[in-house]
């Protein structure tokens, strides 16, 4: 029987484990964290997964509760492979689609159906990805489903499938080194000094987002100051072990998923909260208002596209501002449209009945400049266009140096709120190069025998950002490939 060891226990690792077990392998998963923090970054996510689909026939078999009465009045639309490709190209900075991106697109639907075959079920993301219009729930951004129970639920469902197939997991046991004999990986050494033999090792232990020195080295100065949204355990260990064996560094090491986060949050999503609540520190409804930096200026087009296509970039834009912070400003017209994290009991904000009273409460901001910016913004809002959050409504501004392209409404109804935000890093984009079986390639493009990788370890999938929900789907697509490859399938 083929012996497979997997480093890590997140979505990609569990997908690899399930796939290897399907092929008859014996699988041991080694997790650096103790059991409460197992699951890598998966537990910190909202569990949303982007995949290509043609319509309801692709969606409904994946849904946990097919009797939900809302399904009869829901417009899921479609999200074609061509649209997925176009969305990814929008973040490639002129690069053509990579082989890895093409794989993600083509296998995304099948990956979802495969998870469902292992009793991993999903629910429509009504609260975050749809708005009610004419009595119907209209999904607007090509992202429709999340795991029941969000990221925690995804981890629990995948772990249940993994253990039901006979997989074993050890917590508080990190892979510290790889054992290689005659150019083939034959096992691992744990951080406890134990040598374990294997026919194949799968590295699924994340990127380097929790390593401030590597963030500065690869992403840039001051990135040591970014808030880490996810696990504290993704410190680049797998990348270092692979590099020592001659693995080819691949992809964009200067890129990362950086989300606007509450400025006052603790690192690692605040570990004293249950994992499912850590997402409440995200602040991604900027498209319903405006963002101001310390100089009192707007610095992005908050409405340039649906937030699914901008939130992973705007965190980086905030990090580039003086002091690495900004304030998101809203008026009463949109407060009921703000996602739950804005109403979370620990959300930080200031509130006043007028903009004049609000501005002095925004700590660190040039008040006079902020007043000019907001006055100019209000004067530039197109009055004739109708506000419609279910589509790119064209309700923008005129005459501003930096336009707001959609969802521009005057800030004119109190009470007014402002939320302080910074950039929160979730995962990094640089990794190793793999082949079609998930095997890690060396610098001459030859497979390193016995070594496989998936998840954040895989480079070439994302560059200057990504459409929301693609990260978890990528973990499943490349995790399944690595599992099959390691098991000899």
TrEMBL record:
Keyword Ribonucleoprotein (UniProt): no
Positions of the FAD-dependent oxidoreductase 2 FAD-binding domain: 4-470
Cofactor(s) required, per the database record: FAD
An example Gene Ontology molecular-function term: oxidoreductase activity
The keyword Lipid biosynthesis is assigned to this record: no
Family matches, as Gene3D superfamilies: FAD/NAD(P)-binding domain, Succinate dehydrogenase/fumarate reductase flavoprotein, catalytic domain
InterPro entries according to UniProt: FAD-dep_OxRdtase_2_FAD-bd, FAD-oxidoreductase_2, FAD/NAD-bd_sf, Succ_DH/fumarate_Rdtase_cat_sf
Keywords from the named record: FAD, Flavoprotein, Oxidoreductase
Protein name, as recorded: FAD-dependent tricarballylate dehydrogenase TcuA
């Amino acid at each position: 029987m083929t012996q497979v060891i997997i480093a890590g226990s997140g979505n990609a690792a569990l997908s690899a484990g399930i796939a290897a077990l399907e092929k008859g392998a014996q699988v041991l998963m080694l997790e650096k964290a103790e059991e409460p923090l197992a699951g890598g970054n998966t537990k910190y996510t909202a569990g949303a997964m982007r995949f290509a689909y043609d319509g309801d026939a692709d969606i409904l078999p994946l849904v946990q509760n097919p009797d939900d009465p809302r399904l009869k009045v829901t417009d899921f639309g479609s999200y074609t492979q061509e649209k997925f490709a176009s969305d990814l190209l929008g973040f490639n900075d002129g690069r053509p689609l990579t082989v890895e991106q093409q794989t993600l697109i083509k296998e995304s639907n099948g990956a979802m159906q495969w998870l469902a075959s292992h009793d991993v079920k999903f629910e429509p993301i009504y609260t975050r990805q749809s708005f009610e219009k004419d009595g119907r729930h209209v999904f607007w951004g090509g992202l429709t489903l999340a795991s029941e129970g969000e990221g925690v639920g995804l981890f629990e469902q995948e772990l249940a499938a993994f253990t039901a197939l006979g997989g074993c997991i050890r917590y508080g046991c990190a892979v510290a080194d790889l054992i290689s004999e005659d150019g083939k990986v034959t096992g691992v050494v744990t951080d406890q000094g134990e040598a374990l033999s294997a026919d194949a090792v799968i590295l699924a232990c994340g990127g380097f987002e929790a390593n401030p020195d590597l963030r500065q080295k690869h992403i840039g100065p001051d990135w040591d100051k970014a808030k880490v949204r996810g696990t504290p355990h993704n410190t680049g260990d797998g990348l270092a072990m692979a590099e020592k064996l001659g693995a080819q560094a691949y992809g964009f090491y200067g890129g990362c998923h950086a989300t606007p986060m509450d400025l006052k949050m603790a690192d690692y999503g605040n570990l004293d909260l249950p994992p499912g609540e850590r997402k409440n520190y995200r602040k991604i409804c900027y498209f319903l208002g405006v963002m101001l930096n310390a100089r009192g200026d707007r610095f992005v087009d908050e409405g340039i596209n649906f937030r699914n296509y901008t939130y992973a970039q705007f965190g980086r834009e905030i990090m580039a501002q003086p002091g690495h912070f900004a304030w998101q400003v809203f008026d009463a017209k949109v407060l009921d449209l703000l996602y739950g994290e804005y109403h979370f009991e620990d959300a930080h904000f200031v509130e006043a009945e007028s903009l004049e009273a609000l501005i002095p409460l925004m700590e660190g901001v040039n008040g006079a400049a902020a007043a000019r910016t907001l006055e100019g913004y209000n004067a530039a809002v197109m009055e004739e266009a109708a506000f419609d959050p279910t589509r790119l409504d064209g309700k923008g501004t005129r005459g501003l140096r930096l336009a707001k392209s959609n969802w521009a409404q005057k800030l004119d109804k109190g009470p007014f709120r402002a939320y302080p935000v910074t950039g929160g890093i979730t995962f990094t984009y640089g990794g190793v190069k793999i082949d079609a079986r998930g095997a890690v390639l060396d610098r001459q493009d030859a497979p390193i025998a016995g070594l496989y990788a998936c998840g954040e370890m895989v480079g070439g999938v994302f560059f200057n950002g990504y459409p929301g929900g693609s990260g978890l789907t990528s973990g499943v697509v490349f995790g399944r490939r690595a599992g099959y490859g390691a098991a000899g399938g």
